[in-house]
Amino acid sequence: METESPTSNTTTETQDTVITSSATGNETATATTTSGSTKKRQRTIGEMFGPSSTTSKAPAAKRAKLEVTSTNKSVVSTSSKPSGPAVASISEFSLTKFKESLNPEERKLLLLECEAMDESWLALLEKEIRKPYFLRLKTFLWQEGIHDLGDIKVPLRCYPHPKDIYAWSNTPVGKVKVVIIGQDPYHNVGQAHGLCFSVPKGVKVPPSLVNIYSELKKEYPDFSPPKHGNLQAWVDDGVMLLNSCLTVRANTAASHSKRGWEDFTDKVVDLLDRHGGADLPSDSKEPGAARGLVWLAWGAFAIKRVSRLDKKRHLILQSPHPSPLSAHRGFLGNGHFKKANEWLEQRYGPEAKVDWCHLP
């Protein structure tokens, strides 16, 4: 879990320190293809799920295509093109109609989702967030002081700030190239901002991220670790930084775990498995067909979360957690950043590579 203090080099990421695993596995996203009348043009996932220019709550920074040179041997394996159910109907999602369909209690509990979740993801998760388990979770969070953007209690009792809880959703599903799985948010003041392993500028770089920078330096010697720990540039380049639990009580690690967030983010993983990367450049004759992602699973918890994915389509790279308690048991030297780019270049072309070193 991500519970590091900005003023300490210790960490409580203990359950993620016991796994040593090969970094050469492959996994899939159950692909989806759009289908319909021959009178209509098939649309890409990006066209269907891309963020609305008028409804996006927190538009991400401009996404630049930045190349990184990679010379290692490719680890790509070939597989058949994916297929899946038609998803064109989701493109008809209307936030207004969704709000109108909610009963008064749902309208109160789900107002934050309507305000803070990117509409491209809300379209995919509208049924999930109305399930009983999620409404129970939201009732609990309401009691914890997490309401909506118009009702923020100061000082915050829980992190991250409500506006950042769904920060991961600002990358449309079809644009995601890489997924990094975290556990729960940092629980000290000012650290969490909705992206796993990342902290806002001005906050001391946490120990795990120091080790991530060290590994990046090993793989790309010209990389100069920044003085900050904000990984938003990776997000803008198609890297999803997803915690399994999206909130935490101040100063209390794992305090919101096993309340429902894990079930919800399992659904997000499932959607990435089926639709992730579908709008990346492709020679597929099936518009909207997802062709796989890179998953970086660091530590026992993350490895378990990706264990059910299809290894014939995705590239799944596993290693111990970057925590100081385990980084020297296999995280440092894992080569994951270069391996990810080799696979992306083989699968989607050179423009799909992530510029890991660009952290302005």
TrEMBL record:
- Every copy of the Uracil-DNA glycosylase-like domain together lies at 169-344
Main localization (coarse):
mitochondrion
Any one GO MF term held by the record is: uracil DNA N-glycosylase activity
For this protein, the record's CDD domains field holds: UDG-F1-like
Q: What is its EC number?
A: 3.2.2.27
Positions of the catalytic residues: 184 (proton acceptor)
Top-level class of the enzyme under EC nomenclature: hydrolase
Show the ranges annotated as biased composition (Low complexity): 1-37
User: Could you list the residue ranges that cross the membrane?
Assistant: none
Please describe what this protein does.
Excises uracil residues from the DNA which can arise as a result of misincorporation of dUMP residues by DNA polymerase or due to deamination of cytosine.
Xref: HAMAP family: UDG
Spell out the family assignment given in the record's similarity comment: Belongs to the uracil-DNA glycosylase (UDG) superfamily. UNG family.
Name of protein:
Uracil-DNA glycosylase
Q: Which organism is it from?
A: Pterulicium gracile
Q: What is the lineage of its organism?
A: Eukaryota, Fungi, Dikarya, Basidiomycota, Agaricomycotina
